[in-house]
Amino acid sequence: MATRGQIGVKGSDVLIYKHWDCYPEETLPTLKDTVGVFYEERGNDPEYCVAQIVRAYARRDEERRKERKERAEKGEQRVMGNYESPSMTGWGLRCKHVAPDIEYFYWVDLEEPAIEVYECQEWGYETVENVRERAPLKERLKLETTQVV
């Protein structure tokens, strides 16, 4: 079963939907690195941040796909699922509404800058506000930055 989740950026109505591997150990390294670099270079620019997050995961996924195919060609690993051939599933964009089936929600606040991780234990939050009010906060990462706010 896929571990679904969404990523939202304060100030943007666009939510990124991630169909699989959205647990924190898999999602946070790329998200933290991307948001940290983005904040250093652009500051608080939510719409551009959403786009750069999508680009970062696309680059990461393509690198993983290549690595796994190379290992499979050498007989070191079996290639599975979406790594065998790229598909048009796995990622999506939604405006304002939280997907009903997510297990994790990541909230990026570029004003702080910080990332909050919520563990969604029920279905049907519908809005970001409902997630942030009702879902347990699993982790809050304050991003290190040299930029003066």
Could you characterize the architecture of this molecule?
This protein is α+β, with helices and mostly antiparallel strands and 149 residues long. The protein has one domain. Helix content is 36%, strand content 22%. The protein contains three helices and six strands, in the order ββααβββαβ. The chain has helices at residues 24-42, 46-73, 128-134; strands at 5-9, 14-18, 91-95, 104-109, 114-119, 137-142. A six-stranded mixed sheet has the order 3-2-1-4-5-6, sandwiched between helices. Strand 1 and strand 2 (14-18) form a beta hairpin. Helix 1 (24-42) crosses helix 2 (46-73). The longest helix is centred in the middle third of the chain and has 28 residues, at 46-73. It is globular and about 50 Å long.
Kindly report how far apart the N and C termini lie: 41 Å
DSSP, total strands: 6
- The averaged pLDDT comes out at 88
Q: What shape does the CA trace take?
A: globular
Query: Based on helices, strands and strand pairing, what is the structural class?
Result: alpha+beta
Number of domains: 1
Share in helix = 25-40%
**Individual helix count:** 3
H/E series, N to C?
A: EEHHEEEHE
Strand portion, in percent? 15-25%
Question: Major sheet, described briefly?
Answer: 6 strands, mixed
**For the CA atoms, what is the radius of gyration?**
16 Å
